[in-house]
Structures are given as C-alpha cells and as structure tokens.
Amino acid sequence: MCRLGHSRREAVSGIMALLAVAGSRSAAAASGELKFGLTPVFLTSDFELLDRLRSYLEHATGSPVRLITRRTYQEITALLLSGQLDAAWICGFPFVANHPRLALVGVPVWRGKPLYRSYLIAERDRRVSGLDDLKGDTHAFSDPDSNSGWLVTAAALARRNLTPERFFSQTIFTYGHRNVVRAVASGLAMSGSVDGYVYEVMRETEPGLIAKTSIVEQSELLGFPPVACSAAAADDARTKQLRSALVGMAEDKNGRAVLRMLRLDGFSIEDPSLFDAIAAEVAIVKGAAG
Amino acid sequence: MRAVRIPLAIRIPAVVIVFMAAVAVFISERVLTRLQEAQTRHLGDLAAVYLDGLAPALVAPVVREDVWEVFDIVDRARQVHAGLKPTETVVATADGRVLASSNPREHPTWSLLPSSFSAERATAPAIVSHDTEGEAVARRDLSSGDRIVGSVHATFDISPLLAERRSVLITLIGTNAALTFALALTAWLTVRRMMRPVRVLASHLNASPETPVEPIADSLIKTAPREFRGLFAAFNRMAEAVRDREALSRHLAEEERLASLGRLASGMAHEINNPLGGLFNAIDTLKEHGERSDVRRRTIDLIDRGLKGIRDVVRTTLVTYRTDRDVRSLQRADIDDLKLLIEPEVRRKNLTVRWRNESHDELWVSPSVVRQVLLNLLLNACQATPTGGEISFEALVENSSLVAVVGDTGPGLSDSARDVLVGQHDHAVVGSGGGLGLWMVRRLIKEGGGTIVVYPRSPTGTTIRVALPIGDEEGLAHVA
C-alpha cells in the first residue's frame, strides 16, 4: 500500500510546493478564509470538538475558519505545502521531512511538556517483552507519514538493520491511531505502533478497547505533533493571528473547553530543534534504506 | 374381538384423543412449516439488506486488498446491525482467501475460507440455514464490472428463531394436549351420562339367577332419556311376565307335589287297606273260633303278617320322604323297599316287574337320595308304560359307583322330559306330567356328583342309567 520511499515522498512534496508558489496560495488568501488542516493525529471523529475548535479559532482570529480533514497525513502535508492550507496540525515526521519549507506555528503541551511518546502495543494476553518478540507478526501501523505510528518502529528496526517488511510477516496501515488500537484489540493485527498521547486519551474515553491491549514498549520522549504553516507564510498577519489564538487558548474560556476535550494543557512556541530526535530517526531509516 | 370388550365410556374418549391427536399433528406441522418458511424468508430479506448494503462499499478495498478498510467496514457494519445479529462477517478474495473477518482471531487474514461458508457462487445474496448449529450462512459475490473480485459472507445467529419455533411447538403441544384432555373428559362424562340407563338395564338383566327379576323403579324411568323410557317399560313388561311365569311354575310345582302326595297317600291307603280286610276277617275268625288253639295261632300269624306289612309300608314312606337328611348308609333292603312303594301302581296297571338288586349290603351313599331318585324314575317308568307292559330294574356296583338302570316299554321320553334330565340347561319344565320329578332327579344326581344317561329301547321304551359315586363314611353327610 501507500508506502513510498522517502526520496519519492520528498519529490512529491517538492512538486506540491512548486504548485503552491504557482498560485493556489494567493487564491486561498483572497477568499479571506482561514483554512486549517487536521490530520488523524488526534480524535477527528468528534464533531463537537471540531465545532468548538472552529468557533474558538474564528472568535480568536476574527476571520472565518474552515477545518479540513483528509484520510492521510500525506494529503494534508501536500495541501499545506501547496499553499491550499494556511496551517495544519501535522506530525513531527512530515514537519522534519519538509522542514525548510515548513515553519512551526505552535506545539501542543501535554502533561506539562511539548513532548509525547510512541507505544508498541500488543494483544493483552501475549507474553512479550519487547520489539524483538514481535517478529513475524501482523503489525498495524497508523500512517506511513506518522512519527509515532510508523517512523519510531521503523527506526528501531533500522538500528537492527531490518525493515518492517522483512521483520513483520504483514503490515497494515489503518490511517488513524485509534484504528491501530482497534486492529490490535480485535485481533486483526497482533501488534501495533501507536501514538502514546492518543492511547492515553483513549484509556479514558474507550477503556473497553484499551483493556484488550497492552503496552510492549515505550519510545523516548519526542516532539509533540505540531501545528505548522508553509515557511513562506510564517510571518503573515494571518499566521500571527493563528499563533496568538493557539497560545492564548489556555487563557480563554472556550479555548479551555477545547483543550479539555483534547486533554491538552495548551500550545507553546517552540524551536524546531525540538524535533531533532525525530530528524535523527529519519536519518537512520534513510541510512538503512539507502 | 377383544376391542369390542372395551367399554364405550373409554372407547369414545379414546377415539376423541386419536382424532384430536391427528388434527393436532397436522395443524402443528402446517404451523411450524409456515413459521419456518416465514422465518427463512425474513432472514433471507435481512441477509440481503445486510450484504447488499455492504457490497458496494467493499468492492474497491477488496480490489486494492486493503485489509484495514475491509475490516473497518465489516466491523462498523456489525455495530450498526446489532439487532440482526450477524455473528460474523467475512470478506474473501476471488481465490477463496479471507481478506478480513469481523472476528479476525477466528478467521485470520489470508487464511483459506472455511468450508462452513457457502461455496456456491451467488451474485444475489443466498442464505443457507444450519439448524443443528443454530446458525445460517449467507453469501454474496462482489463484482466490479463483469468480474467477480471477491465475496462477502455473513453468519447469522438463528438460535432466537429456533427458540421461537420451539416455543411455538411447545405452545401447540400444550394447547392441543389441554384441548384433547378437555374434549376427552367431556366425551367420557357425556358417554357415561348417556350410558347410565344402559347400566341400569344391564344391572337388572345381570341380576343373579337366585334373586327374582326386579322391574326398574319408576323414579329411574322418569329421569331416563326418552329413547330409554320405552326400553325400560318393555323390560318391565318382560320382568312382569317372568315373575308371573315364576309364580305359575311355583304354583304348578306345588300342585304337582300335592298330586304326587295324593297318589302316594292313595297308594298307602290301598296298601294299608288290603291287609285290613284280611285282618278284620282274622279278628272275626278269632271271635268265632278263638278257643281253638290251631285256628287262633294261624289267625294271629295272619294278623301279625298283615300288621307287619302295614308297618313296612308306613316305615318305607317315612324313610323316603324324611325332610331331614340321614347320615345312615344305604342298605340293600332300602332299594328293595322301593318295590313295595310302586306296588300299588304296578298292580293298578297290571305291569310285570323284572327286579334285580345286586348292590352290596351296605354302601356309603345317601339312602334318601338314592331312594328318591330311584322312586321317581320307577314311578315315571310305571306311568310311561301302558297297561300290561313291563318295567325292569337293576342295581349293581360298578367302578365304585352305585349303578341303577330303569327300563320301561312306554312310548319313549318326550324331548322336553329328556331335556329336563340331561339337557344343557338346568331348569324346571313347567307343565303337567311328572316334569318336576325328573328335574328333582337331575338336581339330586348333580348334587351327589353322579351321572345320568338316557337310551331309547328297542322296539319301544326307554332305559335310564344312573350312576352315583360311593363315598367314604365322612363324605356321605356332605354329599347328601
């Protein structure tokens, strides 16, 4: 399935970026509408959350906001690079991969830090102690452009000079961290790579599903999936409005309601070096693939 | 023929039960068949809706072999169709491998589709029920254009349907059993009620022979159904006739007894009268020539003989007709005495008697029984034989039985008389002419455990052979 090589992905991104410069961006700006992209990094299924987020952003930025969701990270990233989106909540991996062309707007703060972990999960009753025990599994990944849902596991295998395709008997992309949990809980997959933040939130929202799984391994702390914009628009007034809206979310009543639903503390402005650990993993995977 | 003996009060309810059972089986079979058809149709419709709903969404992911999306679709569909209870949904590729199942642990991805799922190609949803396993499997092929790219299979839990069928069956059985029981009970009560007059009639008809026939009481006739009132009245008329007949026969028997008593009395009078003339003559002789010793001696001898004759006659009569039964043994002379008793009749009709008594001096047989039997037979023979004829008598002991043979030269026994003596039925002949005597003979012989045989005699006449078993000393009183 959509497992592209990194060089190829970059090539696609580059083409998208060129297209963006070519004109779409001006069209988006002209409409006066703030287009905000959302990846399946968090619980996109909750329409109430989307409504509240949109109304908060409209109120805070003073302009109409359109929330745009796509099935894959790649689609959102392409839209962002092509300028069809003003900003998007993407993952650390596409941010790092497209770093010079993307700039940070804000990074969510979870449990006091702009950091999270990736989890390796398996069926609850399996007696496994680490990644090495999962050899030959049917493994569920979230998205080929997800840090926690693919890159972390791929990098761990690359350190062993392995690839997911060789190590696992079968890999399934579910295009959603919640889907990874569903796949493992149902038995469709024997193990999965999942976003630790989503997993912990689901522990509260869907304890029945989580109870059927167990954590095999946790990664080191990594930069939380950030809200990014294209580098060209980093200093636009629109981007500044959005940044202050995000950072001020914790100070606003409606904003706090949104944060409560997301189980986040707020948004902070961080240096791109926050994502160096992810960049290192990208390098390892690239090295192994190369 | 045995079945005929089952009382009507049982037979009719039994027929009701059999009939109801047949109706119940037929109706139950129809109801259950229709229910099953309706359920199958309903299940088929539901399966069609379910599979047709899934099919369009599944085609594209199946072509792409997108395991997750296929799983996602069937997993969500299961949640949506919770009421239908598809226990499992399996999507397979065209070459029969599982792409994804709603229960991946049971049927993992890329495993071969198990044979429990329908193997027949089905462009429209087709359902097959497995009643024993309580499930049904449905199949629908997924086609893109003209090509079949895979198939979607669903397993349905039909145990609620089977349970419903079972509960309907139980309800049917319960209702029918209750209905059958109620109808059988009603039939039994009705028949019993209907049969009550018949039972009344039967109990009156079956009354023991010893008790007289009783007419049915008026109160019963009044409460009986109309059809039976006539029957009861007819029975009462018949009972009345029987009672009249019984009274008549008692009356006749009495007359007969009196007549025979009269005959006996006249015979006795004759027997006593005969020597009386001689005795008076002898007394006259004594009066006139009493002083002559030779005459006196001769005359007194004559008187002695005459008085002894009278004494014998009186004693024999007493012995024969004693009402209390004796415990004496039979003397040879007891039989010879009988000759004396028939003497008047013999003389009156001028008969010849051939008498042979070869019985032992003493036999353990009731003398009164033997004497009454033989006297009755002898008198009957005398009566049957025309004037100047001959009767014969012979007594002997044979095989520890006393055998007596009485013969006459009369016209032979009438059929009715023979019937009285040796016929199938033990009943008194009503009518004139010694019938009662013969009936007594039969009864006495039967009581004594003896036999009686009647032979015709050539050229004319009858021989009657009677045998009475000789008992021991103790048995005698009982037999008598």
Give a structural overview:
Chain A: Keywords: Signal. Chain A: It comes from Microvirga brassicacearum. Chain A: This is Phosphonate ABC transporter substrate-binding protein. Chain A: Pfam families: Phosphonate-bd (PF12974). Chain A: Residues 1-29 form the signal peptide. The complex is a heterodimer of chains A (290) and B (480). Chain A has 290 residues and is an alpha/beta fold. Chain A has two domains: 6-114 and 224-289, Periplasmic binding protein-like II (D-Maltodextrin-Binding Protein, domain 2, 3-Layer(aba) Sandwich); 118-219, Periplasmic binding protein-like II (D-Maltodextrin-Binding Protein, domain 2), CATH 3.40.190.10. Chain A has twelve helices and 13 strands. In chain A, the strands form three sheets. In chain A, strands 2-1-3-12-4-13 form a six-stranded mixed sheet, sandwiched between helices. Chain A has a five-stranded mixed sheet with strand order 8-7-9-6-10. In chain A, β1 (34-38), α2 (47-61) and β2 form a beta-alpha-beta unit. In chain A, α1 (6-31) packs across α3. Residues 1-30 of chain A have low confidence and may be disordered. Among the domains of chain B are: 2-166, 2-Layer Sandwich (Beta-Lactamase); 322-479, Heat Shock Protein 90 (2-Layer Sandwich). Helices cover 58% and strands 16% of the residues of chain B. Chain B is built from eleven helices and twelve strands. The longest helix of chain B has 64 residues, at 226-289. Classes of the chains: A alpha/beta (290), B alpha+beta (480). Chain A binds chain B through residues 1, 138, 140, 170, 172-175, 179, 182-183, 186-188, and chain B through 64, 66-68, 71-72, 75, 100, 102-105, 108-110.
